[in-house]
Amino acid sequence: DAKTTQPPSMDCAEGRAANLPCNHSTISGNEYVYWYRQIHSQGPQYIIHGLKNNETNEMASLIITEDRKSSTLILPHATLRDTAVYYCIVTSSSNTGKLIFGQGTTLQVKP
Amino acid sequence: DADVTQTPRNRITKTGKRIMLECSQTKGHDRMYWYRQDPGLGLRLIYYSFDVKDINKGEISDGYSVSRQAQAKFSLSLESAIPNQTALYFCATSDKGLAGRNEQFFGPGTRLTVL
């Protein structure tokens, strides 16, 4: 599975959009980009995933660059409850289902 | 009721003791996983199982064993606990269904301390 690189921490003002970047320059054609988050030692929570196209769901949007070497998770209106560690994970569609977690980005949403 | 439950939620034990952590799920998923998380780090995969007859080692299986008693139950054992197994342990499940789907559902975690 491709390795990912994320900034260790970011701040965001409440109500503003939070844009969390992820680099995955060695991603291969059959690998998906997944985002999870973990709120204060709770079990991680799935947010969104994508292959090539941008994706949106009720929680967030995922923007994947055309060359697929990087992506951005967007929380459109961050709230204090979005304060968490966000993990960007790249995994193959033929993968055994394993997720390789890096250290993620700690997002602090401030009032 | 929670879809993925773990028992116990907290456990303190002594070096050399045998410990079993249990995981149950009501999601009807075939796949189940055990992870551990050390402070300030991401999760690391210990074992995973695709069905009752399938058990696979993950990144850090040494010192651990597992049992898949039924589709809904997956237990993790520490045969002889040691202090560096002090960690937060998570169970997760996923559906084998659609290609590319790797959405895993996590339990609340078990905080294990080995003295």
The main sheet of chain B comes to:
7 strands, mixed
- Judging from the principal axes of the Cα atoms, what is the shape of chain A? globular
H/E element sequence of chain A: EEEEEEEEE
Biggest beta-sheet profile of chain A: 5 strands, mixed
Chain pair forming the biggest interface:
A-B, 25 and 29 residues
Give the distance, in angstroms, between the N- and C-terminal Cα atoms of chain A: 37 Å
Radius of gyration of chain A, CA atoms, in whole angstroms: 13 Å
Shape of chain B: globular
User: Quick check: average pLDDT of chain B?
Assistant: 92
The average pLDDT score of chain A comes to 92
- State the secondary-structure class of chain A: mainly beta
The largest beta-sheet of chain A arranges its strands as 1-9-8-3-4
> What is the strand content of chain A?
over 45%
Task: Pick out the low-confidence regions of chain B.
Answer: none
How many alpha or pi helices of chain A? 0
Give the beta-strand count of chain A: 9
Describe the structure in your own words.
The complex is a heterodimer of chains A (111) and B (115). By secondary structure, chain A is an all-beta fold. Helices cover 0% and strands 47% of the residues of chain A. Chain A has strands at residues 9-13, 18-23, 31-38, 45-50, 55-56, 61-64, 70-75, 84-92, 105-110. In chain A, the strands form two sheets. In chain A, strands 1-9-8-3-4 form a five-stranded mixed sheet, with no helix packed on it. A four-stranded antiparallel sheet of chain A has the order 2-7-6-5, with no helix packed on it. In chain A, strand 6 (61-64) and strand 7 (70-75) form a beta hairpin. Chain A starts with 8 loop residues before the first strand and ends with a strand. Chain B has 115 residues and is an all-beta fold. Helices cover 0% and strands 54% of the residues of chain B. In chain B, the strands form two sheets. In chain B, strands 2, 4, 5, 6, 9, 10 and 11 form a seven-stranded mixed sheet that branches. Chain B has a four-stranded antiparallel sheet with strand order 1-3-8-7, with no helix packed on it. Chain B is globular.
